[in-house]
Each structure stands twice: as structure tokens, then as C-alpha cells.
Amino acid sequence: MLGVRLDTELEERLAAVARTQGRSKSDIAREAVRRYVDLHDEAYRREARRQSTRASKRDTAEDFAFWNALATDAASQEPDA
């Protein structure tokens, strides 16, 4: 359940549209929110795919070499037990 407060002008415009379409204000608001979420959710998925594609094209051998060198350096700096 969601409650939304609208300013007077917007609520009057919404009521007028609802009357002309023979629909409830809730129907129209629900459709508007659904379209907004679909639009923005799809934009999020596109960006995630773009970043995933970009990451998959990286040279992972270079990444492994970096992390291995870092681990080796850290191990060499540990005091002997």
C-alpha cells in the first residue's frame, strides 16, 4: 500500500483526466508509477549489462599478476614466526 500526497493543482488535473477516461485516479496513478519504474529499471539493467560487458573485456591475466604481486609483497613483509 502506498499513499501519495499531491498538490491541489495536480490532483485536480488527475481527477479531470480520470473523469474523461472513465477511470479511477488510483488506476491512472498506478499506471504512471508502473511506467516510471519500468523505464528506470530497464535503464539500470542496461547499465549493469554495459559494465559487465566492459569488465569481461579486461585483461584478467594483468589483474591476477597485480594481486599475486601484492600477496607476495605482503608475505615478504610478515615477520618470521
Describe this structure in words.
The protein is mostly helical. It is built from three helices and no strands. It has helices spanning 8-21, 25-56, 60-76. Helix 1 crosses helix 2 (25-56). It is elongated, with a radius of gyration of 27 Å. The mean pLDDT is 87.
Question: What can be said about this structure in brief?
Answer:
With 81 residues, the protein is mostly helical.
The proportion of strand residues reads: under 5%
Structural class: mainly alpha
**Spatial separation of the terminal alpha carbons:** 61 Å
Q: Describe the biggest sheet?
A: none
Poorly predicted runs of 5 or more residues: none
Number of strands: 0
Query: What is the multimeric organization of the chains shown?
Result: single chain
Q: Residue share in helices?
A: over 70%
Can you tell me the overall shape? elongated
Topology:
Elements lengths: L7 H14 L3 H32 L3 H17 L5
Helix pairs in contact: 1-2
Q: Keyphrases for this structure?
A:
81 residues; elongated; 0% strand; mainly alpha
